[in-house]
């Protein structure tokens, strides 16, 4: 049997999909962690990106911070937080939130900043308040770039959230880390396939959502 | 650890000259150094937990002290990984533990006493591998509970855990879920099936210990030489059915990579290494002092190995 | 701090290994990405339309860019551990990390190299042809240099992400600054992990700065 047959056998084995530690459970955990991480990261990154993009103040700081965040090794943060906070959700979620902030912040900030100043001035001349300009003019026009950032962040988080299995959490990373511990290659290949599929599906859904949200005129 | 990995440099040189198309060449370069009889440098590998790394450093330091070149490849992974590396010959020797090594190759073994295990090992090992003399130093996996949990559930032996199956989460390395001495053995020997298994990748380290203290897990697989057991007043559960076999430290070698002279040095080390040494070394490296494994190993060799 | 002082040579050695594992995949990945991207962009329609491509080349472009993006969804740890299976390498071989990271760099760079070639104005290319540049010389003397600025932006992101990804190799025993994470966790030594994190970030900042300088030198014609 070659590796493909063995992987197929793994997928079709009794109890591979349902029950404790089955694929359905792991996928649900994986999506749950990812959603939680993206949500927290968005709560932090979106307001900052909007502010900086709108006012143009602190641009250099944002660029420097997103660069530095990108360089932060997730495994390092994960092990450090785990030593400080012990087992549980907090340490791994915090480590990955930091990973997700950079692409989100970059997307929101650059999206808003890229909106034509003439358009913004025209809105101001019509008597819109600053918050109206942000919500009704800049945000809709910035949506493509913002969604670019969201999709980027989602891809990265879904691929990287596998490392939380290094500490005792679940998700599809479990197959990877447990498979690695006993050199069970079919299980690891299965994990790769599942993560890639999940990432593609989520990305496609986000693309659809983006289409639905983008004002017709700017499509 | 302090010697730059030579193979790594050569692979790099190969890569630097012709980039990726050379992946094949990088490989053949790798084996070229190991082939043609016994290599003059012994590559000492280790598993991905600290004690294994310390013993590997001891082997390397002892070999160097006796005039034999040695380099270390630390933290290769679990047994599946480093046995693979040994069989390929990319590492020459790895410190292992006799009982678990035997179980890895022969899960059905009846051997229990230390001498029985050592007798069964040579024929159980795959062709490329052999074991040298075992050391009197022993380090077993063991199930450990806090004093409070022991009292609350009235625990003395692993058998007592089976009464409380549904109330117990067990913490240990991921491979514990599948190894024959792990969950399968505990079920077979004692009927102990914990409600939940919590896999923790720190080699029985601080997270596992903290999880016990915080009662996130009620029992955990720790090494019997772990200084944290005494420090935290943990209770080591008795194992009357010998689920965890005797575990003497023993060098497992790829004979092609290790000369007779090198084997003699490793045997000399094994004779000198005692269980107390392991506990003391673990404490130096992972306790308050945080000494480097290589430094702690070298100190031990300087002190014990007569020049 | 104390820990760092006592282990300077060790940290230095791991930094050197980390540096090699960061740079080689970036160079290899860039060299691989450029021809792929150039082929994907295909023959640009000449000056008549600045919009871009023919239907065939649009399909080719989409296929290449999406395949590259798909590679990026593979978790790095998975790619590292599966390499021996694909390449037939030893489990402990650093080659696993080099090849895996090269794949990531390709995944990131193909996209920005495609963008970079598309950023070159077809009018400019046509002028070069009119001036008597043959296709090969036109590529080296005009198209590639003009694509450098956009490519460089992508390269900097790829380099920095790569530097932080190198550390994952420690989980399979390939030494780098990531070794400080796994070792620090097992030995309950936050200081060691912090040294690893700070070291990685510093390495990224230095290399990023260096790459920016190289880029400025490569595109010094822009100032003229």
UniProtKB/TrEMBL annotation, chain C:
Keywords: Membrane, Transmembrane, Transmembrane helix, Transport. The chain crosses the membrane at residues 20-41, 62-83, 95-117, 163-181, 193-218. GO terms for biological process: glycine betaine transport; transmembrane transport. Gene3D superfamilies: MetI-like (1.10.3720.10). Residues 15-211 form the ABC transmembrane type-1 domain. Belongs to the binding-protein-dependent transport system permease family. This is ABC transporter permease. The lineage of its organism: Bacteria, Bacillati, Actinomycetota, Actinomycetes, Micrococcales.
């Amino acid at each position: 049997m070659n590796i493909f047959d063995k992987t197929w056998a793994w997928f079709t084995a009794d109890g591979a999909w349902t029950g404790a530690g089955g694929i359905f459970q792991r996928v649900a955990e994986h999506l749950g962690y990812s959603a939680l991480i993206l949500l927290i990261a968005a709560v932090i990154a979106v307001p900052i990106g909007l502010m900086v993009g709108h006012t143009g103040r602190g641009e250099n700081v944002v660029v420097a911070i997103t660069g530095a965040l990108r360089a932060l090794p997730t495994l390092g943060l994960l092990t450090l937080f785990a030593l400080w906070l012990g087992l549980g959700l907090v340490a791994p979620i915090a480590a990955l939130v930091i990973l997700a902030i950079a692409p989100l912040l970059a997307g929101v900030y650059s999206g808003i900043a890229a909106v034509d100043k003439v358009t913004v001035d025209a809105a101001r001349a019509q008597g819109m308040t600053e918050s109206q300009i942000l919500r009704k003019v800049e945000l809709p026009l910035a949506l493509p770039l913002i969604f670019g950032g969201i999709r980027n962040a989602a891809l990265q988080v879904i691929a990287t959230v596998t490392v939380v299995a290094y500490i005792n959490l679940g998700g599809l990373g479990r197959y990877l880390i447990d498979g690695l511990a006993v050199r069970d290659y079919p299980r690891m290949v299965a994990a790769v396939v599942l993560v890639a599929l999940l990432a593609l599906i989520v990305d496609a859904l986000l693309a659809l959502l983006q289409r639905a949200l983008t004002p017709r005129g700017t499509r | 650890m302090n010697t730059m990995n030579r193979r790594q440099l050569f692979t790099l040189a190969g890569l630097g000259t012709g980039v990726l198309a050379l992946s094949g060449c990088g490989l053949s370069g790798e084996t070229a150094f190991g082939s043609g009889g016994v290599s003059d440098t012994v590559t000492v590998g280790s598993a991905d937990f600290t004690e294994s790394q310390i013993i590997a450093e001891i082997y390397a330091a002892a070999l160097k002290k006796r005039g034999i070149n040695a380099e270390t490849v630390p933290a290769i992974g679990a047994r599946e990984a480093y046995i693979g590396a040994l069989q390929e010959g990319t590492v020459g020797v790895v410190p292992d533990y006799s009982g678990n090594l035997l179980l890895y190759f022969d899960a059905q073994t009846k051997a229990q006493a230390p001498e029985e295990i050592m007798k069964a090992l040579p024929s159980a090992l795959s062709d490329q591998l052999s074991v040298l003399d075992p050391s009197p130093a022993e380090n077993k996996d063991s199930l450990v509970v806090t004093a409070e949990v022991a009292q609350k559930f009235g625990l003395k032996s692993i058998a007592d855990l089976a009464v409380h199956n549904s109330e117990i989460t067990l913490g240990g390395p991921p491979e514990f879920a599948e190894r024959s001495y792990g969950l399968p053995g505990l079920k077979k020997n004692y009927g102990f099936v914990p409600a939940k298994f919590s896999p923790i990748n720190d080699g029985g380290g601080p997270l596992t210990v903290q999880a016990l203290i915080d009662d996130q897990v009620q029992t955990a697989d720790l090494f019997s030489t772990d200084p944290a057991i005494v420090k935290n007043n943990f209770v080591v559960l008795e194992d009357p059915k010998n689920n965890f076999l005797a575990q003497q430290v023993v060098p497992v070698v790829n004979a092609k990579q290790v000369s007779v002279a090198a084997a003699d040095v490793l045997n000399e080390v094994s004779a000198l290494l005692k269980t107390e040494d392991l506990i003391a070394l673990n404490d130096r490296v992972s306790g308050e002092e945080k000494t480097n494994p290589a430094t702690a190993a070298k100190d031990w060799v300087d002190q014990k190995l007569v020049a | 701090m104390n820990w760092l002082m006592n282990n300077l040579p060790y940290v230095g050695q791991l930094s050197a290994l980390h540096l090699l594992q960061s740079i080689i995949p970036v160079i290899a990945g860039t060299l691989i990405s450029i021809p792929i991207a150039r082929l994907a962009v295909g023959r640009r329609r000449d000056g008549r339309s600045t919009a871009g491509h023919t239907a065939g080349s649009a399909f080719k472009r989409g296929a290449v860019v999406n395949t590259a993006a798909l590679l990026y969804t593979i978790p790095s740890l998975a790619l590292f551990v599966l390499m021996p299976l694909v390449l037939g390498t030893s489990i402990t071989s650093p080659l696993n990390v080099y090849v895996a990271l090269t794949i990531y760099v390709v995944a990131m760079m193909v996209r920005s190299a495609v963008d970079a070639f598309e950023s070159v104005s077809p009018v400019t290319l046509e002028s070069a042809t009119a001036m008597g540049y043959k296709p090969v010389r036109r590529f080296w003397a005009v198209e590639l240099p003009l694509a450098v600025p956009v490519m460089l932006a992508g390269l900097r992101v790829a380099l920095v992400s790569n530097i932080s990804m190198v550390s994952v190799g420690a989980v399979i025993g390939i030494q780098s600054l990531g070794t400080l994470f796994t070792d620090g966790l097992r030995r309950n030594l936050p200081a060691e992990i912090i040294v690893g994190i700070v070291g990685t970030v510093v390495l990224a900042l230095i290399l990023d700065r260096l790459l920016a300088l190289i880029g400025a030198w490569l595109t010094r014609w822009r100032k003229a």
